[in-house]
Each structure stands twice: as structure tokens, then as C-alpha cells.
Amino acid sequence: MLEYDVGDLPLQVSTWEKLVHPEDQPWVMKLLNDHLQDPLQPYAFDYRVKTKSGHWKWIGNFGKLVAKDLEGTPLRMAGMHKDITVRKYREEQIKTSLREKEVMLQEIHHRVKNNLQVISSLLNLQARNVNDPGTLEVIKESQNRVSSMALVHEKLYQSKNLDKINFSEYITDLVNSLTRSYQSQSNQVKIKIDVEHVAFKLDIAIPCGLIINELVSNALKYAFTDSLKPEIKSLCIQA
What we know:
Elements: H1 13-19, H2 25-37, E1 44-50, E2 56-68, E3 74-83, H3 85-127, H4 133-158, E4 164-166, H5 167-181, H6 183-186, E5 190-191, E6 199-201, H7 202-222, E7 231-232
Parallel strand pairs: 5-7
Antiparallel strand pairs: 1-2, 2-3, 4-6
């Protein structure tokens, strides 16, 4: 398997140790010593070994201490080495492919977020040419809805898990954004957010975000005209 003939190498543990890849040596030797001291510690792992021609092969290693002398010194181990180089190569190809897809998904979410922000900016430019209060309110509501969707994509491309977002963080940022948008109405409003740490996929996060956007917006606009201590609380999403 490693291209050596019988008699090429001294039959010593140190000979085997020198063939182990330098990056793998520290932890491989630690696992060996741990097993020799306590045979109940598992001795099964993958590591790299140098062949006679100087190449590196991945070896699947399985072993067990089978004999000690009267003083407890290890005498003999039995086990198996399996060439798993091809498997490791394919695993690395899969990992590389997954990393490339993750980068692509991050870029897609980033671009969608940027495009939604462009739409919000265009609405803002349009609002500068509008004097009718009702029309301005409609434009603001549209901006908030677009922003709630953009925030989902922003959270997704920043997340390690590109499939889901932390909905607790998302709601907090969304509500803070809405309170800034309705600053005149929300100056005295106290908001308490109670959300479990749940992760939602895109197809759930966006409609939930839009619903929360409508609820909080309507509360900030209409709910507290006569209230002395306005408060929004118990925004609770449970898994």
C-alpha cells in the first residue's frame, strides 16, 4: 500500500512516526499514547502517511492494544490500515463545491438586498416631489415594506447558515428601523421585544416580517393618540 518492501524499514514505532505527515504527527501520537495508557480510549482516525515514492496517502486507521507485560508496558497492537485517498479527494471536491455555492448564495442575497435598497431610495426621491400627506404616507409604507424584505436578505448573507436567519435579531432590527421611520409618533412609545431564538427560512421570514411591519407600523401611527404611557410589548414568536 505504501510501496515499501519487507525489510525496507526498521520495525519500530519511531519508523512509523517519521512517515506520518508533519501536520498530523502531534495529534496522531497523542491518540496513540492516550490509547496505550487507557485501551478504552478509541484508536480510530484518518491521517496522512508518506509512500516510498514520496507521495502522501490518506490512511483509515483502526487499532487496539492487545498485549501488555506484567508491569503494564504495552507490547503489541493489532489493527488495520485502509487506503482512503480516493475518498478523501472526493470529499475535498464536495467541500470545495459547497464553499463555491455558499459564496454564490451570499452574493445573490447581497445583490437582492442592494436592489431592494435602490427601490427604497427611488421611493424616497419620489417623495421629495410629493406634497399630499396621504401620498407621502403611502410611499413611506411602501419603503418600510421593501426595507423589511431587504433586511431578511441582509441577515441571510451575513449568516453562517445561508438557509435560515436568526429571527430574534431580525425582529429587533426591523422594529428599531420602524421606530426611526415613525420618529414623531414613536418618541414616547416604549417597545418590549420578547422573541425566542428561532431560525426561519426565507419563505417564512419574509411574510412574517411583512406582517410584523404592518402591526408595528399601525400601532405607531394609530394606537397611542390618547395614551399617557404608550407601550408595545409581547412581540412573541415561538417555534
